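Task 17 of the worksheet. Students: predict the tertiary structure of the chain below and write it out as structure tokens. Keep your answer in the requested format; marks are given for formatting as well as content.
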Amino acid sequence: MTASQTLSLADHTGVVEYVPGDLTITLRAGTTLADLERIVGEQGQWFPVNPYGSSDGTIGATVATASSGTLSHGFGTIRDLVLGVTFVNGEGKLVSGGGRVVKNVAGFDLVRLLTGSWGTLGVITELSLRLYAQPAGRLTMRLDAPTDQRRLANRLSELLSAPILPFALELLSEGVAQRLGLPRRPTILALLGGNVAAVRAQRDTLAKLGAADEVSEDAWDKLRVLESPESSVFRVSGLPTQLAERWERMRTMMESWDGSLMHASIARGTVRCILPAEPPAGAIEAMSSPHASDTVIFETLAPALWARFSPTAIADRVSQGIKSAFDPLGILNPGILGPSF
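Model answer:
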């Protein structure tokens, strides 16, 4: 990023419209996730997004960066839960897309375009979100994960084909498990939810796959804040059916560095790798070199390393055309979506 000025929406907060009966809410972008959780929780509802980091983050930043967490297993990513967006483009014009109801599909999908655009196309001011009713029952279960790649692949396949609908299903390295207060061994963590009977049935199904213990639900909160501000974090993704192979490949590389951590979304096939504060550039290069079938996305890096490992220039005609249409003067987050004008 080469921006010389910043625009804060920290004071642009609060509810614009909330219709609990429709399970929708419209908020100003500076509203924190904690405030959103409190507001809808009073009506027995929730917004099933738990991006990594604390709930002090804002809903606007969550959408602008397309941040999601473990709940994306059961509810999709943030892109699937945003109904409408209002933003100010690079010419100072107010633009709206989507709407405030679930069934609203017409015209160009500005909602998906703005989600994950990192402020390069517009400054998000308001968002309409899809909500869910809070489940009557919730339960977190822990299972040991096989250390052998073939057996792990079989176990993951069994979980994905089992008659369960977990809210979250995560594979943890032994280091991550220990940090969450669980036994120090490779672990599978499952968050079950729904009515009491459904939760009980899913618990019994998991128990048939192997020894399964009930653990505290705060393990999910601890997972959200696992890394330190100085950590380097990247995701390695590919086909979910190849997750066991991807996991073993990354585990072999990561074990060379003290303090490194790994966890993976079983349904999405994504391994999230956390390296300790300021690892050598050579370590990042080795670990983040993509396999032929994998894609690497960086979440956090030291400022000096971004240009080397995550170059920003996008020279294709479509991307540059979109940028020019929304920000013809190149004033919005310059240097992120292609070179500065």
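Marker's comment: The domain at 227-309 is CATH 3.30.70.2730 (Alpha-Beta Plaits). The mean pLDDT is 89.
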